[in-house]
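User: I'm preparing a small set of examples for a lab meeting where we compare how different chains pack in three dimensions. I only have the primary sequence for this one, and I'd like the structure in token form so I can line it up with the others. Please keep the answer compact; I'll paste it straight into my notes.
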Amino acid sequence: MIIKPRIKGFVCITSHPTGCLENIREQVAYAKSQEIFHEHKPKRVLVIGSSTGYGLSSRISAAFSCGADTLGVYFERPPAGERTASAGFYNSQAFCKLAKEAGLQAEDINGDAFSNEIKDEVVVKAKEFGGQFDLVIYSLASPRRTDPKDGVSYRACLKPIGAIYKNKTLDTDKQEVKEVTIDPASEDEIAQTEKVMGGEDWESWTDVLLDAGLLSPNCLNIAYSYIGPQVTQPIYRNGTIGQAKLHLENSAARISEKMRNAGSGKAYVSVNKALVTQASSAIPVVPLYVSILYKIMKEMGTHEGCIEQTCRLFKDRLYGEGDTLVDEENRIRLDDWEMDPIVQEKIIEIWPSITTENLKELTSFELYQEEFLKLFGFGRNDVDYELEVDPSASL
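Assistant: Understood. Below is the structure token output for the 395-residue chain.
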């Protein structure tokens, strides 16, 4: 069949296996150019949430910059008849293909990472895999979570706290700048978002791995977070998601203490840059902010995608010379180039004047669209999208 993008709102419900493979090839080539020679670079890596975004790029960096064997955990839809798989499924297939061609071990577990069953499966697989992990990456992005302790399901929401929020946003379908108004979250919505996106599950994963003796003495345990700029603070950092991210960041201290007591390394939260991802495209205001950010950072020569960010994390922060650099909250700040005062001052200056009419002049919205399509394997110049493809065929 010929596969074309079918976009509904902020999600593309089709994906292209060949395009996804070429996306992974591109990231692999960059990771190879950033080879790491540190004596403690990881040999075995577990990535929880390994199929898209920062989790996927972390796995690629671990394998192709460090030469590590990797175990990836994700929850993705396989193909069914003429229905394509999710992009993350094709991404993971592509990664395993290229890793094995390079002589690296790469194993996958597809299932609900919040569940006890998948945690238990990882323990069994890890012991077959070669033993202790030197690096754990926790990069889950999900709108809902069922707590395995009591079977209760929780749903995250994107809302401000304490007051109605009004600001500009971007309707990416209609290419229209308009105002968005969002009512504040209830206490229950705040609590539910924290249960889904906070640090509880990260800590649970760490407990399981420690109990099984699967974290090496030099293990680094990394979770990803985001802070963001002034223009998105009410809906992000000061909103429900921000509260959950604060819980995640606060969990790092407890997790690190547990690891130290077990002689198994330490935990950090890495605060990363805003990018076009499946998760970020759903957040009001963020697509407009990212479109402006991309234009400014490209002009300054500081723009990075996921793979550039994770390679910099590995090479400069985790496995560079000296100790890992952190801020006063013990967070690794990979968003340092985004939060450069010059960048943020330009965004504040541009923001009030953005309209539908000048959107493409004052922002890199066209690049945003290109990056969005690439998430699903579309929009690549080196792929012939008129060719017939079997969505169920192995890559």
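A couple of notes for your slides: The domain at 13-374 is CATH 3.40.50.720 (Rossmann fold). The mean pLDDT is 94.

User: Perfect, thanks.
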